[in-house]
Write a structure and sequence with these properties.
Layout lengths: L46 E19 L2 E15 L2 E7 L12 H17 L6 H8 L6 H19 L3 H5 L5 E3 L1 E4 L5 H14 L3 E5 L6 H10 L5 E5 L9 H5 L9 E2 L7 H10 L4 E3 L6 H9 L5 E4 L1 H4 L2 H13 L4 E3 L6 H11 L31 E3 L12 H7 E8 L3
Parallel strand pairs: 5-6, 6-7, 7-8, 8-9, 9-10, 10-11
Antiparallel strand pairs: 1-2, 1-13, 2-3, 4-12
Helix pairs in contact: 1-3, 2-3, 5-6, 9-11
The chain binds 2-succinylbenzoate (OSB) and magnesium ion (MG).
Magnesium ion binds next to loops.
């Protein structure tokens, strides 16, 4: 978030009438956005201790992308214990810094040594002020997002309000897509896609890389009904010199091409967008609302994948949703192989009105044999938006205990 969030008008405590972002710009039928109002949290949350838990949770199948293979997730869970209750956050940083520069051990270190001391230096702190307090620390958005999420969950739970209602959700369930990894063979890929379509997923995303792009896309297109929604994600595996090759994807009527070029190369994406007819969607590049605005204005993308961890939290994510809506740029909710904790919050976010494409919000069984919350189950291609207070799901303590690889409790001093 760095210095960027300083420029953002943040609503402040006690009965403030200004909000961090503006519901009146959203589409009709919106519920009014309300921040937690219960007396217990009217002046924010006083956090007494933060538990940092690491769990190792195996994936049901290896997930291969252009940057590597994941077989299990190393998840950092942030559990805040406050005066008015507790809350959970999930850090989406991976075990290794392959998707972006953040990684789980680094995120934990930053949280312990740089974020929590700044937060504990405040007596009470409203969740809408967390980003501002952490702004002097540059970057480390996934670490910040995890802490802010736990804060948000705690405040909303104590106020009895769901995250979906707080963010301004307009749906009670969301359409789901699925992200399909790079496979060893085409028959294996067809098998995987076929299974997901039978389960009801509304959109298929194929991971691609040089050497695994035109052929798999062509075969999937030929093999399944022409109406299926299909898109690809390169995780930055190409260069602008591949523009003509990428333009060959145009014949397959894809919804979008996600992050073909490196994160920093906004201008190259804008140039690519002039050569390729398929809409360019950015994932890794969009690290804040400010960058989202620049990317849109320079024509680097016409669709945005919103991942709260990547942009520093759900409040920044909601702002990006909002600015995209104002510019008529559709968004969809990305994923980072979250457990039920992160999934619950992602599904709440995906229920906002400008999430116009199915998200990478797949059911629990696409990822894990045993999730750490009650499983999210696909029904008619959709997941239900949790309606309980906060993120609306309970953490299964026994399951988490069984998966725990380390646990530290950081307490407020004084
Ligand atoms: O680029 O969208 C991505 C998973 C891990 C890291 C990056 C990405 C992904 C996915 C899977 O595509 C999304 C999901 O199902 O959670
Ligand atoms: Mg992606």
């Amino acid at each position: 978030m760095g210095g960027i969030s300083n420029a953002r008008p943040l609503a402040c405590g006690r009965g403030a009438s200004r909000r961090a972002w503006h519901p009146h710009r959203l589409a009709g039928g919106m519920t009014e956005l309300r921040r937690p109002t219960s007396p217990a949290t009217a002046s924010g949350l006083r956090v007494e201790a933060v538990e940092l838990r690491r769990i190792a949770i195996p994936l049901v199948a290896p997930f291969r992308t252009s940057f590597g293979v994941e077989r299990q997730r190393d998840v950092l869970l942030v559990h805040v214990l406050g005066n008015a209750g507790e809350g959970w956050g999930e850090c989406v940083a991976m075990e290794e810094p392959l998707y972006s520069s953040e990684y789980a051990d680094g995120a934990q270190r930053v949280i312990e040594e740089h974020l929590l001391p700044r937060l504990f230096a405040q007596d009470h702190l409203d969740v809408t002020d967390v980003a501002r307090v952490l702004a002097p620390i540059r970057g480390h958005r996934m670490a910040k997002a995890a802490v802010e999420m736990a804060w948000l969950d705690a405040q909303l739970r104590s106020a009895g309000q769901s995250l979906a209602a707080y963010l301004g959700a307009t749906r009670t369930s969301v359409e789901c897509g699925v992200s399909v990894g790079i496979m060893d063979s085409i028959p294996q890929l067809l098998d995987a896609v076929g299974t997901y379509l039978e389960q009801g997923y509304r959109r298929i995303k194929l991971k691609v890389e040089p050497g695994w792009d035109l052929e798999p896309v062509r075969t999937v297109r030929e093999h399944f009904p022409s109406g299926i929604l299909l898109q690809v994600d390169a995780n930055a595996a190409y260069t602008l010199a591949d523009a003509d090759h990428l333009a060959a994807l145009d014949q397959f009527d894809l919804l979008l091409i996600e992050q073909p070029l490196p994160q920093e190369e906004l201008l190259a994406h804008a140039k690519l967008a002039k050569v390729v007819r398929t809409p360019i969607c950015l994932d890794e590049s969009i690290v804040s609302a400010a960058v989202a605005t620049e990317a849109i204005e320079m024509g680097a993308c016409s669709v945005i994948n919103i991942k709260p961890g990547r942009v520093g939290g759900y409040l920044e994510a909601a702002q990006i949703h909002d600015l995209c809506l104002a510019r008529q740029v559709p968004v969809w909710c990305g994923g980072m192989l979250e457990t039920g904790v992160g999934r619950a919050a992602n599904v709440a976010l995906a229920a906002l009105p400008n999430f116009l494409l199915p998200g990478d919000t797949s059911a629990s069984d696409r990822y894990f044999r045993q999730d750490i919350t009650a499983p999210f189950i696909l029904e008619d291609g959709r997941l239900a938006v949790p309606s309980g207070p906060g993120i609306g799901v309970e953490v299964l303590r026994d399951v988490v205990d069984g998966l725990t690889t380390s646990r530290r409790v950081v307490r407020r001093v004084g």
